[in-house]
Design goal:
This protein has about 170 residues and is of the alpha+beta class. The chain has 6 helices and 4 strands; from the N terminus they run H-H-H-H-H-E-E-H-E-E. The protein has a two-stranded antiparallel ribbon with strand order 1-2.
């Protein structure tokens, strides 16, 4: 402990900042662990409901990069229903024009779900979020999966995977 008292002012400040960052990282890790647990529970819920493996895999892809704190606030049942609805929306998209869907959120926290599906375009998510905020709305959960997709001749979704950098993809 004596060594700590011999630190200069800047060194003590650096130690404090490091301590705050350590606490922040621990908080993020806590939410990420809870997020993983809830997403896995949602995937199991989809399996129990008889949803095929692609719907279950879609749930994992949908929530992969979402904020842990926001996802951890939702029940596995709500996460399963949101994923089921989003998968249906993506699977039905026929390409070409952007597609938009508004729906009531399932679950314990009433909200409106806004889904936009398009080929990958720079800044589209930022632009939509900017418009929502300019209208006085605060999104509770933002999910932005970018997927490589394969579709059949009729435009039906055949397969998907997380997009590789530079590949043609859908949002």
């Amino acid at each position: 402990m004596r060594a700590a008292w011999n630190l200069g002012r800047n060194e003590r400040r650096a130690a404090t900042v490091t301590s705050e960052k350590t606490r922040e990282a621990a908080m993020i890790d806590r939410f990420e662990a809870e997020k993983r647990a809830r997403v896995e529970a949602a995937r199991r819920r989809l399996a129990e409901d008889g949803e095929p493996r692609p719907v279950q895999a879609f749930a994992e892809a949908l929530y992969a990069h979402g904020a842990g704190e926001d996802i951890a606030a939702l029940s596995p049942e709500t996460l399963a229903e949101l994923a089921r609805g989003a998968y249906g929306f993506v699977a039905r998209w026929r390409g070409g024009e952007p597609s938009l869907r508004l729906a009531d959120s399932p679950g314990e926290r009433p909200a409106t779900v806004i889904e936009i599906h398009n080929v990958d375009r720079p800044f589209i998510v930022d632009s939509v979020l900017g418009e929502l905020r300019a209208s006085g709305l605060s999104p509770r959960l933002v999910l932005h999966p970018i997927l490589e997709t394969e579709r059949d001749a009729d435009g039906r979704l055949v397969s998907f995977s997380p997009a590789r950098r530079g590949a043609r993809s859908e949002r």
